[in-house]
Structures are given as structure tokens and as C-alpha cells.
Design a protein that fits this description.
By secondary structure, the chain is of the alpha/beta class. The protein folds into 2 domains: 67 residues, no CATH class; 152 residues, Rossmann fold (3-Layer(aba) Sandwich), CATH 3.40.50. The strands form 2 sheets. The protein has an 8-stranded mixed beta sheet with strand order 7-6-5-8-9-10-11-12, with helices on one face. The protein has a 4-stranded mixed beta sheet with strand order 2-3-1-4.
Length: 277
């Protein structure tokens, strides 16, 4: 559960300005129901040239004042008792989905494909299963290898293949694809295709993404001023809106240039074909 901050437009006219100076409007909190997820709240707040009344926001939002989904550029003062909503997993999920989709669309023979996933916190263990049919070798680099033991046993029973799990960062070298889910992206060398939310150094083919297109049911309740990707992130992590876990990035970027998803898959396939020629 969280509260999205909606900034109400300033009222114009001398009478309105005088009235608001003496009796500024108070924030109003309303509940919004969500399909396939828990409800969230919208906190509508008047603002003027003096800024926002953070004390009134804290009093109105109550415990949700520590879980505010904010418009870009709005930052609570340190002593306000208010705090921005914290999300930790969704951008990793978007990156994984994007990488998975592009690898599938490339259509490379699994026997010539290897995939390494960098997931230090072992946050996406369940998703690894989807990679197994796509590559002869699937490896995970994680600081929590014990969290993958059950999955390793299950994959051996299901696919007759082993999932390699290690803590050694150098295991990412010489791989066809790397899904770098960690925010602190290490240095990669060679010809590997790297999917990353960060900026890998010395990487010839670095793929990243941004934005997402909300399904209609969620776009209909998007609060004004809130970024769609941030809204999806909040709903997925704090309201258990599971359908949003299937989204990919809207814009795919290769070395600073934007591509549609289909064109990016073709670029990756051509790049890998040159390497194998």
C-alpha cells in the first residue's frame, strides 16, 4: 500500500490568491481500487508559491507519509516526517523480461548459446527457469547461492540439465548473453551482449531500457503527474499487482540509440552471427 501525491493546480485570480494565503486548502486522501491487486491511495495536495504544506501532508497521510509515490522533482524536506516510496525489485524484473523476450526473438540455436545472470541478492530465482530451453549453458552469479539449491534440483528433474551457480564474477566472461540485474554493473570485456540497468564499461554491445506501457486497466487509474514506470513499480511491489510483472521496457537502447523491440532482436541476431562466422 502507498499514497501517490497529486499536485493540484494553482488557482488564479486575486481573490483566490488572497483566500489561499489566509486559508490554504488541505490535502485530501482517497482510496483507489486496482484490478488484480490491493488498493492504493491518492493524496491530492494544493500548492502555491510557498510550496507544499508537508506538515499537513504528514497529518493527512498518517503512516502512508513514509510511502509516498512522488511526481518527478518533488522531494520531501529531511525534517518533514515524509519519505518517498522505496522499490527494489521491479526494474530488475523489467530488465529480465526484456532480455528474455529479445533472446527468444533472436532465435539463436540453444547449442550455440550461453547465458549468465548477475543476481547478487537472488531476487529473481523463480524466473531463471524460463532461460533453460534457450541455452546450452545457464549460469548464475550470486552472493546467495544457497537460495538456488531447490531450483537446481528442480531443473535437473525437469530438464535433465544443471544450473551453474557461483560467486565468482569472472564467470561472466566468454558468454553469449549477460543479464546484469544488479544496479552496480561490473566491467565487461569481449563480445558479450549485456542487458543492464546500469552502464557497463568496455562493453561493445550494451542493451538497456526505459519506460513501460501500462495495460488499460492500470493506465485508467494512473495519478496525474506520476511516471507510468514508477506507478507500475509501486503497484507491483507494494500492491501485489501480478499482471504488471509481465511487462517489458518500452524503449530499448543500444549504446545511446533507441530501437523498437523487433529491430533490436534483429540487431542482436546479426551481431551474434558475425561473431560465429
Amino acid at each position: 500500500m502507498f499514497a501517490a501525491l497529486e499536485l493540484l493546480a494553482r488557482e488564479t485570480g486575486i481573490k483566490n490568491r488572497i483566500r489561499n494565503a489566509w486559508r490554504p486548502g488541505k490535502p485530501e486522501l482517497r482510496q483507489v481500487n486496482v484490478r488484480a491487486g490491493a488498493a492504493f491511495f491518492v493524496l491530492s495536495c494544493p500548492w502555491n508559491k510557498r510550496g507544499l504544506d508537508w506538515e499537513a501532508i504528514r497529518e493527512t497521510a498518517g503512516r502512508l507519509s513514509q510511502k509516498l509515490l512522488l511526481p518527478p522533482g518533488v522531494v520531501p524536506p529531511e525534517d518533514s516526517g515524509c519519505a518517498a516510496l522505496v522499490c527494489t525489485k521491479y526494474r530488475q524484473k523489467l530488465l529480465f523480461n526484456t532480455g528474455l523476450t529479445l533472446i527468444k526473438q533472436c532465435g539463436l540455436p540453444p547449442r550455440r548459446t550461453s547465458i549468465t545472470v548477475l543476481d547478487s541478492g537472488a531476487r529473481l530465482t523463480a524466473e531463471i527457469r524460463q532461460l533453460m530451453p534457450l541455452a546450452a549453458t545457464v549460469r548464475v552469479i550470486s552472493e546467495r547461492p544457497e537460495r538456488y539449491r531447490d531450483l537446481q534440483e528442480s531443473l535437473m528433474d525437469e530438464f535433465g540439465a544443471s544450473l551453474l551457480v557461483t560467486e565468482a564474477p569472472n564467470a561472466a566472461q566468454g558468454i553469449t548473453f549477460i543479464l546484469a540485474l544488479d544496479s552496480d554493473c561490473p566491467v565487461f570485456t569481449g563480445d558479450t551482449v549485456v542487458f543492464s540497468n546500469g552502464e557497463p564499461s568496455h562493453c561493445r554491445f550494451a542493451v538497456s531500457g526505459s519506460g513501460c506501457i501500462l495495460p488499460e486497466a492500470y493506465a485508467a487509474v494512473l495519478p496525474p503527474g506520476i511516471v507510468p514506470e514508477a506507478f507500475a513499480e509501486a503497484l507491483y511491489e507494494h500492491c501485489s499487482a501480478a499482471p504488471l510483472g509481465a511487462l517489458c521496457y518500452e524503449t530499448i537502447t543500444l549504446c545511446g540509440a533507441a530501437f523498437p523491440m523487433r529491430d533490436m532482436a534483429a540487431e542482436i541476431k546479426r551481431y551474434c552471427a558475425r561473431l560465429c562466422a
